[in-house]
């Protein structure tokens, strides 16, 4: 018969192992995808019919060049949430050091106008550095639990 303290220790160890596994899995996903946020939940209707509120999206941030038609997730400095919209225009500028600077203009599929008003003041485009990943897959409606926990279920 196990002693009570041994049973308690083994239960605590199982919980710690489960939590550590989640963090290890997340860290592995971040490394593999090249994104700090490899999985996100869509929170608005701006990309309907492609994505709806509550859809779980998977990101990949290993592409160096973004193309028109790609769907990046852009996190503008100072904004509380990222934006997932389709690229409608790309402009390139060669830097002095030879690197290519991409200036990206996006628009939600369900929006009437482009996103130039949403970027940093005085800059009517987003930069490649602000892209946390390109959408490469999604699962419909799986993220509703996350929206409910955030209080955004009824919006």
From TrEMBL:
Its main location: endoplasmic reticulum. Pfam families: Peptidase_S24. It is found in: Endoplasmic reticulum membrane. It is a single-pass type II membrane protein. Its EC number is 3.4.21.89. It comes from the Eukaryota. GO terms for biological process: signal peptide processing. Keywords: Endoplasmic reticulum, Hydrolase, Membrane, Protease, Signal-anchor, Transmembrane, Transmembrane helix. CDD domains: Peptidase_S24_S26 (cd06462). The keyword Transmembrane applies. One of its GO terms (molecular function) is signal peptidase activity. Residues 27-94 form the Peptidase S24/S26A/S26B/S26C domain. It catalyses: Cleavage of hydrophobic, N-terminal signal or leader sequences from secreted and periplasmic proteins. It is an enzyme of class 3 (hydrolase). Coiled coil: none annotated. InterPro entries: LexA/Signal_pep-like_sf, Pept_S26A_signal_pept_1_Ser-AS, Peptidase_S24_S26A/B/C, Peptidase_S26B. GO terms for cellular component: signal peptidase complex. Catalytic component of the signal peptidase complex (SPC) which catalyzes the cleavage of N-terminal signal sequences from nascent proteins as they are translocated into the lumen of the endoplasmic reticulum. Specifically cleaves N-terminal signal peptides that contain a hydrophobic alpha-helix (h-region) shorter than 18-20 amino acids. Component of the signal peptidase complex (SPC) composed of a catalytic subunit SEC11 and three accessory subunits SPC1, SPC2 and SPC3. The complex induces a local thinning of the ER membrane which is used to measure the length of the signal peptide (SP) h-region of protein substrates. This ensures the selectivity of the complex towards h-regions shorter than 18-20 amino acids. SPC associates with the translocon complex. This is Signal peptidase complex catalytic subunit SEC11. It comes from Penicillium salamii. The lineage of its organism: Eukaryota, Fungi, Dikarya, Ascomycota, Pezizomycotina.
């Amino acid at each position: 018969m196990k002693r009570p303290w041994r049973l308690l220790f083994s239960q605590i160890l199982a919980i710690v192992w489960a939590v550590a596994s989640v963090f290890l899995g997340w860290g592995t996903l971040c490394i593999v995808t090249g994104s700090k946020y490899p999985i996100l939940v869509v929170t608005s209707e701006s990309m309907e019919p492609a994505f709806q509120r509550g859809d779980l999206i998977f990101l990949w941030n290993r592409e160096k060049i973004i193309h028109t038609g790609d769907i990046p997730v852009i996190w503008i400095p100072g904004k509380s949430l990222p934006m997932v919209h389709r690229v409608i225009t790309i402009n390139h500028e060669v830097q002095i050091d030879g690197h290519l600077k991409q200036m990206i203009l996006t628009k939600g599929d369900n929006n009437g106008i482009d996103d130039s008003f949403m970027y940093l003041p005085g800059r009517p485009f987003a930069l490649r550095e602000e892209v946390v990943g390109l959408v490469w897959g999604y699962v419909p409606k799986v993220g509703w639990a996350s929206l409910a926990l955030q209080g955004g279920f009824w919006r």
